[in-house]
Every structure is written in C-alpha cells, then in structure tokens.
Design brief:
alpha/beta; five-stranded mixed sheet; three-stranded mixed sheet; 14 helices; binds 2-acetamido-2-deoxy-beta-D-glucopyranose; membrane; glycoprotein
Length: about 400
C-alpha cells in the first residue's frame, strides 16, 4: 500500500471506530432487554397467567388492575363481556399499547370476540374456561392461572407473589371448597336453571324450570368461592378432558345456579389424581354482610388495616376509583398514576416525573417488599393445613 493510501485507510478506520463507539453509547441507554431473556422453569421463580374480566364501562378499571398486577414474566388476558362495546375494547387496547414494557414483552392480550356472561348463569363459567384455554395455548411458560375481575385489587406486588409461591409445589391448587352444601343444596344445586346466554343472541337472565333434580350419586357436589388459583396441570385436565369427569361435570353445571361456585371444586375433589393437590383457600380478602348478600361488601379506607393484616393476596370488592385503592398503590405497590407496579426488574431512576420501569434489567430477579411477610406467613399456615390433611376434600 502506498503511504498516502495507508494514511487515508487509517483515517477512515478511525472515523468508523468512533461512529461505532458513538452508536453503542446511544443504544445502551436506555437498557431494555428483550423477552429472549425470560427464564421460566423450575429453577426460576413461578409465573402467573391472569384472566381479567369486566363488563361495560370497565375499561379504565381493567387497565388500572392490569398495571397493578403487571410483571414481564406473567401473561395476561383481558375480557370485556358482550354487554360492552367494541369501542370500549379498542379504548382498552390503546391504553394497554401505551405501556412500553407491554409493547416489548407482548404478554397482554384482549379477547376480540367476547363471550356472554349472564349473572349467575353458566355462560360465565364457559368464558372462564375459554380464557384458561387461550392462556394455555398462547404461553407455555406460566405456572398458575388466576381469575380476577374489574372489582378486584392486589394486596401484594408481583415480586411478593412470585417470591412466596417459589416455596409452593407447582401442582397445588387454591380452591376454597366444602361438601357441606347447607342451604345451597336446596337453592343452588337442586333447582334446574337455564342460561339463555348459551343460545340466545341478546342479553337475558337465567330462568328456573319447575322440576327439581335429585342430588347426584355418580359424584359428590362441592361448592365454594368462585375465585380460584389453578395449577397449569389441573387447568389442562379440565380443558382437554382426557378423563370424562371434567366434561360430565361441565354438562351437569350448565343447569346450576352460579356454576362458578361448583365446577372446579367438584372436578378437583372427585378426581383421585388431583384431589390431594387442593389447598382449601381462595387467597382473597372479602367482608360479608350479616346475613351475607350475593356479593361481599364494598371495601373502603376503614377496611385498609384489616385487609393488610389478613395476609391475603387479593381483595374484593372495590368501587371504581375508591380512595383505598390509592392507598394500596401508595403504601403497598409503590405505584403511581398510569404506571405499572415497580419490581426488581425496573432499573430506571425513580422520581415523580420519571417512571423507573421505562428501563429494565434482569426480569427474572425478584425483590419482595415488607408486605410479602404477612402473605408468606398465611401461605405457610395454608401449606401446613394441607400437609396435615386437615382441610381437604371430604368425600
Ligand atoms: C396424591 O394421590 C395420588 C394418588 O392417590 C398419589 O399418587 C400422590 O402421591 C399423592 N400426592 C400427594 C402429595 O400426597
Ligand atoms: C366504609 O364502609 C362502611 C360500610 O361498609 C361504612 O360503615 C363506613 O362508614 C365506610 N367508611 C368510610 C371511611 O367511608
């Protein structure tokens, strides 16, 4: 190479090098590792699949609830029932899309073709099973299925939840249940009801047949809280139905009042391979009137202390924008405005004008806060009860 060419070569090389350096400085700030860094197996903390349903007018509440339970390792499916409009669904979709971490991890979906959810009818049960089926299909990496509605709110962060569930066998199911039906036998199980939501286009209410049925003797009916946390393997068993029991019970449940309080409970307790994976609790904080009404009371600031002391993971029910939700955001979740609940994965600077979760690092690490302690205690008690078999399906 002649000397003048050599000189030109060096110049170009230097220019290229500094350009590369400059570009790499730009691309490392902000740091936002991609979903390829997700690690989800038994060596890593568990992940959750949330089915979050609401009805007409719930898009903002659903968005707030999503932000409060969001974590890049989890999976989410949002559903606004047929009583809501496509306009509301679009609005919710654009709210979800405004969150940069969700755009990157693409772990939130919205049901585009919604289901009917008749109050007290079995179409609601069908919608939950469909939600579970979609979550099983779109994501192979989660461990537990959690059903929330727009009226719920978390009492722990996702770092807390995943940390506490790290010490739980991943085949365990949290289903509050009893075989002591009491008044429910005569009022919920024996009456035969029909849910027009299963076959009529327009909205309707369940209606009662004049005949009543006999109590079944092919299986035992269990009932309990509709708010369940299911292991992946048990949900697969219900959805895929290689044994006929889940299907038989589904058909039986279709004519029952509030089948959501009967279906999973009866399937699990009548299945020998799953009944001993049932922890008898729904992980929820609820307060009931005396005598109890159909729904628990609306919680407010007066309930805050007891709610936090309860060691539950979620609470219901709340009115929209209830002040106690702001209190939970501030004191427990450390969440502000339209931002997700921060976790160990958020590495950005935190101030009132910057969202720490616009930058992230290792999404597989957790940093439980002080509220994880109560939840951990109550989980240890539940697991103790489960091990000592004092609280299981009594056939
Ligand atoms: C649950 O029961 C099944 C079958 O009855 C048994 O194989 C399994 O080991 C039991 N699991 C536990 C945790 O007891
Ligand atoms: C909270 O609700 C209860 C009824 O459930 C009511 O008695 C109480 O006054 C309410 N407290 C506040 C601060 O609104």
């Amino acid at each position: 190479m002649p000397t003048d060419k050599k000189w030109l070569f060096t110049l170009i090389l230097t220019a290229l090098l500094s350009l590369t350096l400059l570009l790499s400085t730009f691309s490392t700030t902000p740091s936002t590792p991609s979903p390829a860094n997700l690690r989800r197996d038994l060596n890593y903390p568990p992940a959750f699949a949330y089915y979050i349903s609401g009805s007409s007018g719930d898009s903002e509440r659903l968005f707030r609830l999503l932000l409060s339970v969001y974590h890049p390792r989890n999976r989410y499916l949002l559903h606004i029932g047929t009583d809501g409009s496509d306009e509301e669904r679009r609005k919710l979709g654009s709210l979800v899309n405004s969150v940069s971490v969700i755009r990157t991890f693409r772990n939130v979906d919205l049901v585009g073709k919604p289901d009917k959810t008749t109050y007290m009818g079995s179409s609601s049960m069908a919608a939950v099973l469909r939600g579970g089926s979609i979550l099983l299909k779109v994501d192979k990496g989660w461990d537990w299925f959690v059903h929330l509605t727009a009226l719920d709110y978390p009492l722990v962060t996702q770092d807390d939840l995943s940390h506490v569930f790290s010490s739980v066998r991943r085949d365990l199911n949290f289903i509050d249940h009893t075989s002591d039906l009491g008044w429910k036998e005569g009022q919920r199980v024996l009456p035969i009801v029909v849910d027009p939501g299963l076959y009529l286009g327009r909205r309707g209410q369940i209606f009662h047949a004049t005949e009543k049925r006999k109590m079944p003797d092919a299986f035992k009916v269990f009932t309990g809280s509709p708010w369940v946390t299911l292991s992946r393997s048990f949900l697969e068993y219900c959805v895929l139905g290689w044994d006929n029991l889940p299907r038989t019970l589904l058909m039986f449940s279709s004519n029952i009042v509030l089948s959501q309080e009967v279906y999973f409970h009866s399937v699990i307790c009548n299945s020998p391979e799953f009944s001993n994976t049932t922890v008898n609790n729904d992980l929820r904080y609820m307060v009931w009137d005396n005598p109890p009404k159909m729904e628990p009371v609306f919680l407010n600031i007066s309930d805050y202390k007891q709610m936090v002391q309860s060691g539950a993971a979620f609470a219901r029910q709340f009115a929209k924008d209830e002040a106690v939700l702001d209190m939970i955001d501030e004191k427990i979740l450390k969440r502000e405005g339209n931002r997700v609940t921060p976790g160990a994965w958020c590495t950005g600077r935190r101030s009132w004008f910057t969202d720490p979760c616009l930058q992230w690092g290792d999404v597989n690490s957790l940093k439980p806060g002080k509220h994880a302690k109560k939840f951990k205690e109550s989980m240890s008690n539940l697991l103790y009860d489960w091990k000592t078999q004092s609280n299981q399906c009594i056939l």
